[in-house]
């Protein structure tokens, strides 16, 4: 970028779920693409809520059994798919440990905490910690103690986080925001929306994100 060229500001809404492996891949790839663009682009990233399993019980479900029932896949097919995801993650520097991630959990409380984290300017940090806690460390991201601890690691007030989790704060706001994206035809994630106009679907590689971001930046 020349000394006389101002950076292009882009709003990026990353619609995703904490329990979505392709969302972990997509967010990592998006951030790598932005790093490649250097100071030519200033990105304002907002993590938006989407629940893959809004009816998931509090105790969660066995991951393999859940995927078999939901998609009709065999255990062997699921493990092959998981190996593909693991390899994609490894290429980006994100580690999936499928042996540790043995259950699927309800993520609504995590989304409530992410909503608050956005108000505090720590949302992206918390999102990254949640993804790693679940996919790398196999932690229960519906557990309030785990969520409060991760909030603290993201630089948020732990006691405030505990209060939010206990009293149901931001439930209405999260539900409303989820409905916005459903009403706009978003039924699978990740969905990356740039400047409220340009949609990139799926966990694309960094090269695809970079190309799209360059094109949008020229139009901004």
Explain this structure to me?
- The longest helix has 18 residues, at 75-92.
- The two termini are 16 Å apart.
- The protein has a single domain (8-54, 107-219), classed as Glutaredoxin, CATH 3.40.30.10.
- It is globular, with a radius of gyration of 18 Å.
- The chain has a four-stranded mixed β-sheet with strand order 2-1-5-6. The chain has a two-stranded antiparallel ribbon with strand order 3-4.
- Helix content is 53%, strand content 14%.
- Helix 1 packs across helix 9 (206-219) and helix 4 packs antiparallel against helix 5 (123-135).
- It contains nine helices and six strands.
- It has 220 residues and is of the alpha+beta class.
Defining traits:
single chain; 220 residues; alpha+beta; Glutaredoxin; four-stranded mixed β-sheet; two-stranded antiparallel sheet; globular
Shape assignment: globular
| Lateral arrangement of strands in the main beta sheet | 2-1-5-6
The residue-averaged pLDDT reads: 95
Number of helices: 9
How are helices and strands ordered from N to C?
EHEEHHEHHHHHEEH
Strand content: 5-15%
Helix/strand class:
alpha+beta
What would CATH call the class? Alpha Beta
**What's the domain count?**
1
Largest sheet: 4 strands, mixed
SSE layout and pairing:
Layout: E1 8-16, H1 21-37, E2 41-49, E3 61-62, H2 63-71, H3 75-92, E4 103-104, H4 108-119, H5 123-135, H6 144-153, H7 158-167, H8 171-183, E5 191-194, E6 198-201, H9 206-219
Parallel strand pairs: 1-2
Antiparallel strand pairs: 1-5, 3-4, 5-6
């Amino acid at each position: 970028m020349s000394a006389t060229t101002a950076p292009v500001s882009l709003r990026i809404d990353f619609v995703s779920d904490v329990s979505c492996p392709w969302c972990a891949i997509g967010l990592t790839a998006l951030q790598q693409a932005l790093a490649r663009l250097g100071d030519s682009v200033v990105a304002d990233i907002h993590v938006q809520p989407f629940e893959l399993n809004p009816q998931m019980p509090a105790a969660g479900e066995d991951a393999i059994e859940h995927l078999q029932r939901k998609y009709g896949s065999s255990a062997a097919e699921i493990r092959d798919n998981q190996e593909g995801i693991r390899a994609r993650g490894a290429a980006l520097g994100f580690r999936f440990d499928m042996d540790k991630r043995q259950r699927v959990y309800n993520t609504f409380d995590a989304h409530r905490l992410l909503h608050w984290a956005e108000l505090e300017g720590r949302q992206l940090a918390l999102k990254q910690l949640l993804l790693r806690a679940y996919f790398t460390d196999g932690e229960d991201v519906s557990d309030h103690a785990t969520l409060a601890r991760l909030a603290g690691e993201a630089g948020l007030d732990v006691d405030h986080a505990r209060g939010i989790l206990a009293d149901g704060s931001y439930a209405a706001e999260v539900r409303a925001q989820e409905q916005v994206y459903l009403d706009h035809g978003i039924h699978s994630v990740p969905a990356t929306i740039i400047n409220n106009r340009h949609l990139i679907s799926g966990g694309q590689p960094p090269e695809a994100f970079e190309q799209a971001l360059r094109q949008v930046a020229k139009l901004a």
